[in-house]
Amino acid sequence: MKGLHCLIFLLLFTGHFSLAQEICDNGKDDDGNGLTDLQDPDCQCHFNVDGNLLQNGSFESYNNCPTNYSYQGDYNIANFWQYGTYTGINLADYYHNFNCSRDSAQVMILIPPALPLPDGNAFMSIRQYVYRQSSPSEKDIAKVYISQCLQSPLKPGEEYTLSFSAGRFRSSDDHEFKFKSVPFSVAIFGHTDCNAVPFGPVGAVSNGCPANFSGWILLGKISVRSKGNWVQNKISFSVPYNINVIEIGPDCSLFDPSRDLADSTTFLDDYIYYLDDLHLLPTKDFHFPSIQNQNGNPCSQDSVLNAPVVPGAVYQWYKDSVAIIGATEMKYHLPENNFQGYYNVRISTGETCEISEPFAAGLDPLSSLQIPADTTLCDSDSLLLAPSIDGISYLVNGTQSPTVTIMKEGTYTIVASSKNGCIKTFNINVRGQNCSILMPNAFTPNANGKNDVFQIPLQAKIILKEFSIYNRWGNKVFTTTDRNLGWDGTFKGTASLSDTYIYIIKGVANNKNVELKGIVTLIR
To answer: What is the CATH number of domain 442-522?
Structure first.
């Protein structure tokens, strides 16, 4: 029994104990944490990274062991890293190295991480404080960031990727790990000047998020889910100008302190997470397997997606991170219906596991563009069939145009293309017609069956919004939104006097809002 108790304690201690294990290819939430298949950290694959623009990306190199975890004494223990912001708060969760006795003792009692660590014996902590006030001035407590002045600047025109391992674990105040399914944010900020670090000082307005201070910009962020284990993830971004210093930590969101639980579990447990094994490189230097579209058109539902060729591999396809049951071949044919979404393929061998970059199918802005095959054009008017849409260009009968605007009747071939390489071709026939609404100038409501009702002619092409009639004093005597109704010359059951009346017609004709005003004479 003693051995069994030790085993249970070890499982709880390392954060790997659960009543059920997530199965990654059945489309179900097996462990009941609200996450299915690739959404669940259990199903993530580890990827290997060579090279680094960061120095000491796994925090193994350090000057000395922490003494009291205060900003003044311990802000730059890990070589090349320092606090991103001034803070006067004593923290037991900034830099940790299990070669340091106090660090090891404090961390393993308060918030023990899963072992082994992603790399070596050292890691960093990030704290996402809950502010006491809802104001964005954020005076009360600072967020925690780690910062590094880069050896060489990040330059515009190049895409970069920051890869990292992150985890959120049980704490001394949250034994049941109640926040295990709540995501946390990892963000990266940049500045041109290394002397901008740390920002602050304590009590400064907006002390909390780098982007609230002059010169700092958000480069990228991602939401991460961890249920007591280390999860590998990445953020890809580009820069608008040279960036010489970065800060890594929470995004700029404010959190509601009301999330304290009745059993005294605190919100602070929800917003502390660990980082390790950071790599910053041009994206082209990472190896991320990509899906190729066999017909080259990501807008087409009649597409075959090809996974990378890996000898002896087992394949599993996913749509929006949920397994597609039975899709286990190297190729996957998109379905005819409901094909829009993000597709991944998980490639597994006996020794490796890789998940491809997401492939967007049918999510291009061009996918929702529709132009009718037959339509009409009013004489002496223009017809807008497709507006200007960011990222889409048009060829109208071979002529480049930012919109599809038809000026005369005829047959047109319209080729729309997007910046993602999607192409749609429309062949339309435009017929001319007289769209004028010719209203009668008089009517005789004498019940003889001729010209008794004043109404919009049936042949008029209009979608009616309002048809109203007013007497000469501006009083409304009739109104309707029914296209087929007209005025019979009465008001509240009483015959109106012979006189001139004003009518107003509002509606849509030829895809345009129209408003027509005129005078009609009632004759008795």
So the answer is: 2.60.40
